[in-house]
Amino acid sequence: MSTGNIVGTIDAAQIAMITFIGFFIALVFWLRREDRREGYPLEDALTGRTLADGGPLSSAAPKTFILPFGKGTVSVPNGNRDDFEVNAKRRENFGGAPLSPVGDVFAAGVGPGSYANRAKWPDIDANGNPRIVPMGLVPEISVASASTDPRGLPVYGADGAKAGVVTDLWVDRAEHMVRYLAVDTGTKTVLAPMPMAVVKKNTVIISAINAADFAGAPFPANPGEITRYEEERTVAYFGTGYLYANEDRLEPLI
Q1: Same domain, yes or no, for 242 and 136?
Q2: Which residue of 10, 75, 112, 135 is surrounded by the most CB atoms within 10 Å?
Q3: CA 114, 119, 121, 125 torsion: positive or negative?
């Protein structure tokens, strides 16, 4: 009767097991090479010295990605480092120590105000059109009759003072939802992230920042669209306020 051996004491089950183990080890190395296309090589948190990349088993050859809608190509890894400085200082002299913003907290890019330098073109829908635009440009989207239309309502900040009045809604034409509120502060119009707003019957409350801080919020350079870069800055500006708008927010809860 056949024992199932192919050569000597090596049978089909043993070959299958060895093949699986070899494939799994190769898969781990392949995944580690692919996930190092961005963010590597690492750098020392204290000195900024670039660390070793791990050798050929941990470094993938450059791969070129074609961006949609004719936005060019991107090749990674490319060895580029961040081209901007974080306006913050380390509180203690050890890696992982907390950072304190230096100068204008809303421009420091620290903590809840962190941001990435995203592309300077709008997010695009499947048809090649900017996704986030003023609602007036998308007649098929409107505020549900059962919901409060925030247009015309006063906006109040974290300090309870009036920051301005909602003049328009910026909507995501792909997701059919409001992304930003256009707020007229009296001196300029700014965009406030909708998820940070509480719309009540007669008022809108945005507790992220104080009323006076609204005047410093960024606004798109093109009145009819917002770039990914501008979105990142807008959300970071309001996010900063959750920690730095008032000094009592810097203290522990207990």
Answers
A1: yes
A2: 135
A3: negative
Instruction: Report helix, strand or coil for 8.
Output: coil
How far apart are the C-alpha atoms of 180 and 175, rounded to whole Å?
Answer: 13
Tokens of 45: 């948190």
**140-173 burial, b for 16+ CB within 10 Å, e for fewer?**
ebeeeeeeeebeebebbbbeeeebbbbebbbbbb
Report the C-alpha gap between 247 and 254 in whole angstroms: 15
Residue 72 covered by a domain: yes
In this prediction, residues 176-180 reach a mean pLDDT of 94
Looking at this protein, which amino acid is placed at residue 93?
Answer: N
Q: Hunting for tokens 């050569």 — which residue is that? A: 7
Question: Are residues 126 and 24 part of one domain?
Answer: no
Strand partners, 172: 132, 177
Q: Which of 22, 45, 76 is the last residue of a domain?
A: 76
Residue 84 inside a domain? The answer is no
Sign (positive/negative) of CA torsion 140, 141, 142, 145?
Answer: positive
Rounded CA separation 107/7 (Å): 70
Q: How confident is the model at residue 58 (pLDDT cuts 50, 70, 90)?
A: confident
Output the pLDDT for position 70. Answer: 86
Last residue of a domain, one of 17, 47, 76: 76
Q: What is the pTM of this model?
A: 0.82
CA torsion sign for 131, 137, 143, 149 is positive
User: Is 181 within 8 Å of 166 (Cβ atoms)?
Assistant: yes
Residue 172 included in any domain: yes
- How many domains is the chain partitioned into structurally? 2
Token digits for 69? 């809608």
